[in-house]
């Protein structure tokens, strides 16, 4: 009886040792997955026909568990909770489903399958993803963009790029708050954008900087007034030249008219003078003839 027990123990130990060696020699792929709090996440094994499937989980809190299926006798072995179970029948699909994911479920999930090609392995680093609470404020020449209580920490950038500084705060529940400050004193744009990146989804917050629009409008009005003043000046100058030329031409015409009038008068006087002399001579002759007749 003792010999049989010893043989059984040796077989179990040998099988465990062989499985450990096979797992160590397995071809491994790695990836990361994020799950939102309370959601369901599905993890896949390599899509190969298998004789044996083993899921081994090492949680971040130090706990561990396993879930396995052996095709030879269709047996399932497990010590993981029922929150982690097969997606469908394990002889058809080696994928597992984790229900209502919690922070205590964070850890390394490894899938080992024994196939005709050998042992294959896929490793997942599964982390809880919590959407951050975002805000964007502006005071005293400084813009503050905050992504609070996110997991993992959010990334923050600015558009346009400028003088900014990021500070990270780790909260007791493992989430992180990122606070980014931005100096807006030397920004010429009228809008500032805080760009937040996170596995749960990115977003952009836009801040309209006060005084930028008024300054642009004031500059535009100054330019318009300057252009209008310049046009009026050009128009006034052109009008002055036109009036000067018009008055000058009027003066020339008036002077010419006066000259012609004086010349006309002289001509008339010259024409009348011989006639007057003739009349005077005729009157003298008439007077003498009258005196001769009387004598």
Per-chain topology:
Layout: H1 2-25, E1 27-36, E2 41-43, E3 52-59, E4 64-70, E5 75-78, E6 84-86, E7 96-98, E8 107-115, E9 118-129, E10 133-139, E11 142-150, E12 155-159, E13 164-170, E14 176-183, E15 191-197, E16 203-208, H2 212-294
What does this structure look like?
- With 295 residues, the protein is α+β, with helices and mostly antiparallel strands.
- The chain contains 2 helices and 16 strands.
- A 6-stranded mixed beta sheet has the order 1-9-8-3-4-5, with helices on one face. A 4-stranded antiparallel beta sheet has the order 10-11-14-13, with no helix packed on it.
- 16% of the residues are buried.
Shape: elongated
> Could you state the CATH homologous superfamily of the domain at 25-128?
Immunoglobulins
CATH architecture of the domain at 25-128: Sandwich
Mean pLDDT: 79
- CATH fold-type name of the domain at 25-128: Immunoglobulin-like
Query: Could you estimate the helical fraction of the residues in percent?
Result: 25-40%
Low-pLDDT segments, ≥5 res = 1-6, 8-26
Strand order of the largest sheet: 1-9-8-3-4-5
N-to-C terminal Cα separation, in Å?
Answer: 213 Å
Query: Approximately what portion of the residues adopt beta-strand conformation?
Result: 35-45%
Helix and strand sequence: HEEEEEEEEEEEEEEEEH
Summarize the main sheet: 6 strands, mixed
Per DSSP E runs of 2 or more residues, the count of β-strands stands at 16
Annotation field: number of helices: 2
Return the CATH class of the domain at 25-128. Answer: Mainly Beta
* Whole-angstrom Rg: 55 Å
Going by helix content, strand content and strand pairing, the class is alpha+beta
Domain CD80-like immunoglobulin C2-set: 137-200
Membrane topology: Single-pass membrane protein
Pfam family, one: C2-set_2
Subcellular location: Membrane
